[in-house]
Design a protein that fits this description.
The protein is an alpha/beta fold and 300 residues long. The chain has nine helices and 15 strands.
């Protein structure tokens, strides 16, 4: 295309000047196309190991959970090969990081939570898509005291610590009721109980909510605390300080949790089958490094 530019009357001719905009636009399109060619591959998600034959399936827990790490490593070495899969343990920094990675397929699974804890995570993160695929073990969980040798010795007005997250606070209240120290309202779902649901507290107990590590460190300052064996042993507290420890109910069994979108993946089906293998329960019952921390599903 061109445009006519009038010249002065002195010259008696016109100058025809070619428009430059098609070339400019064309160059811009080329630049955008090149940029897209560079950017788009980076935006495209890579295939999940869950859907990749022969890929290594990562099973994660929170960093420092030695017993869970030992369990996953046992399955990786002794059980997974029977099912034609490769499994690897990974410790990760926090629960949201683990659950997000499971939901998106960045890792295959986790074994660090029970159904009630998972429900708590999903309620707080509605974009997460995870399923508790199968129970694997029961955590050692009990009443600990640095001052008293039995439940009966706990005095009137004693200060007892529960965990600060709602699911494990409920489990602690369940245990205290089993020990005869409190009574919960029969009309409530006891797996979501809070202190407001206590209807009888004959020893006038008071409660302090602490997180996992802080609770075990604070035991000398408390009359007693309800917590996981694993954290107390990691803090060097002898098992003799655990004065009451009934087997946890099914609601608090540790679950193999996987991404919901991958439930039909052959790799994930094989992973679930590996965690259900009878050798896993035998390992939990006999291995010295996990015994007492992680209990078999049939533990009484």
């Amino acid at each position: 295309m061109s445009e006519n530019v009038p010249a002065s009357d002195d010259h008696g001719f016109t100058v025809r000047r070619r428009k430059r905009w098609p070339w400019i636009v064309g160059a811009a399109v080329v630049v955008i196309a090149v940029a897209a060619a560079v950017v788009l591959p980076r935006l495209a998600p890579s295939a999940s190991a869950n859907d990749t034959e022969g890929a290594t399936l990562v099973v994660a827990t929170a960093e420092g959970n030695a017993a869970e790490e030992k369990l996953v490593e046992f399955i990786a070495e002794e059980v997974a090969p029977k099912y034609g899969i490769k499994v690897e343990f990974q410790g990760m920094s926090d629960s949201n990081t683990i659950n997000r990675a499971v939901s998106t397929g960045e890792i295959a699974a986790t074994v660090y939570q029970h159904k009630l804890w998972l429900g708590q995570v999903l309620e707080a993160n509605p974009d997460f898509r995870e399923t508790a695929a199968t129970p694997v073990f029961r955590w050692g969980f009990g009443l600990w005291s640095d001052k008293w040798k039995s439940v009966e010795e706990i005095p009137d007005g004693a200060n007892i610590s529960l965990y600060s997250d709602p699911a494990n606070e409920a489990q602690g209240l369940w245990l205290l009721e089993r020990a005869g120290l409190i009574t919960l309202d029969d009309g409530i779902d006891k797996w979501t109980a809070t202190q407001d649901d206590i209807v009888e507290n004959p020893k006038n107990l008071t409660f302090t909510l602490l997180d996992f590590a802080a609770q075990s460190r604070s035991l000398p300052d408390l009359d007693a605390a309800v917590g996981y064996t694993e954290y107390y042993q990691a803090a060097g507290i002898p098992i003799e300080k655990q004065i009451y420890a009934p087997a946890a109910p099914d609601e608090f069994a540790g679950q193999l949790t996987v991404g919901t979108d991958y439930l039909d993946s052959p790799n994930i089906k094989k992973l679930i089958a590996a965690f259900q293998d009878p050798a896993v329960q035998e390992f939990l019952a006999t291995d010295a490094d996990v015994k007492g921390n992680l209990l078999p599903l049939d533990a009484e």
